[in-house]
Each structure stands twice: as C-alpha cells, then as structure tokens.
Q: What sequence folds into this?
C-alpha cells in the first residue's frame, strides 16, 4: 500500500487510502482514521464531509502539483501527492480535492489506462463492464484549455474506473483498468 506525503500550508501529512466506495473514502491521516465523502458541484466547487462534518470548498488555483483550496473562508495551499513508499504491483492514489480520484488498484502497467499529461477529467466515455477496443476513447482530459482524448491501450473489458468528472490528475496516474 502506498503512503503519500501531502503538504498542507507546508506542513507534511502522511496519508493512506484504506478503502474506497464510490465517492466515500476511509483514509489514514497521520495515524488517525478519517471517513471522507466528496460531492462535485461543478466549476471547481465541491462539498466535503469529514467524519460527518460538512464543508463547502472551492478550487481556486492549480499549478504544478500545487492546489489552492478555499474551505470555510480560509485558503489552503495543498501540494500533493508524493509517494513515500511505492511497491511495483499496487497503485494507491489520493482523492483529489474535487472528485473521486483514484484509490487502491492492483493495476499492472499493461492493464492500466494512464493519464498522458496532468489535467482535469472533463468527461468519462466508458463504464465498468463495458467492452472496449484498443484506441477507443476512455475519457477526455483537459489540459491548458485543450481537450485531449485518452485512448484504451488494448482490447478488453473496463474493470475499474478510478476517476470521475472534475478529478485533477497528474501525468502517469491510473485512470481506469482494462483487463
């Protein structure tokens, strides 16, 4: 299991995603287990529920792995995620501040659909269980105001979708698994 180091206002936090179910996550933050739920409101706005306490948030700026997020009138600088431990056969990703963003996946390179560049997922074009052919559009990723189609790397069936519309991803993040 990957452990991420996320900086919030330059303070380091060790984060592990323990469980994911749709847009709900069970996360270990610095040794404390926290239940987190996300709901994307669109246009960079979203709601977060942390251990049943609700917050409204807004992504103000995203550049080079650093987000500025406004929660309850206060702006936080979030630098994300830096893996502290990285086994070869597992992929664990942190939820972005906006939407369901990757969690535990046993995806191995050839089965994974990877983000070719950093950006925001603006449309999902497949669903779990759907048969796809090599080259079919899996999702559309927006980067620098350009819409980029992310293609299936092989024929198969979509086993996992690890992002949702609005998710912010980095180059190389696993977006989906095709087996």
A:
């Amino acid at each position: 299991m990957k452990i991420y180091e996320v900086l919030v206002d330059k303070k380091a936090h060790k984060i592990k995603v323990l469980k994911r179910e749709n847009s709900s996550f069970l996360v270990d933050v610095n040794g404390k287990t926290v239940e987190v739920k996300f709901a994307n409101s669109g246009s960079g706005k979203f709601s977060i529920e942390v251990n049943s306490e609700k917050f409204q948030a807004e992504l103000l700026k995203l550049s080079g792995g650093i987000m500025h997020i406004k929660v309850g009138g206060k702006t936080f600088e979030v630098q994300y995620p830096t893996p502290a431990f990285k086994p070869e056969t597992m992929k664990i990703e942190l939820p972005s501040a906006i939407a369901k963003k990757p969690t535990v996946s046993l995806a191995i390179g050839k089965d994974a659909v990877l983000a070719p560049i950093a950006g925001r997922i603006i449309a999902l074009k497949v669903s779990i269980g759907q048969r796809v052919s090599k080259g079919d559009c899996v999702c559309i990723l927006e980067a620098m105001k350009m819409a980029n189609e992310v293609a299936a790397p092989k024929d198969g069936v979509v086993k996992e979708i690890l992002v949702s519309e609005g998710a912010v991803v980095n180059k190389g993040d696993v977006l989906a698994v095709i087996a």
Remarks:
- The CA atoms of residues 8 and 78 lie 5 Å apart.
- Residues 82-107 have pLDDT under 50 and may be disordered.
- The first strand starts at residue 3 and ends at 8.
- The two ends are 21 Å apart (CA to CA).
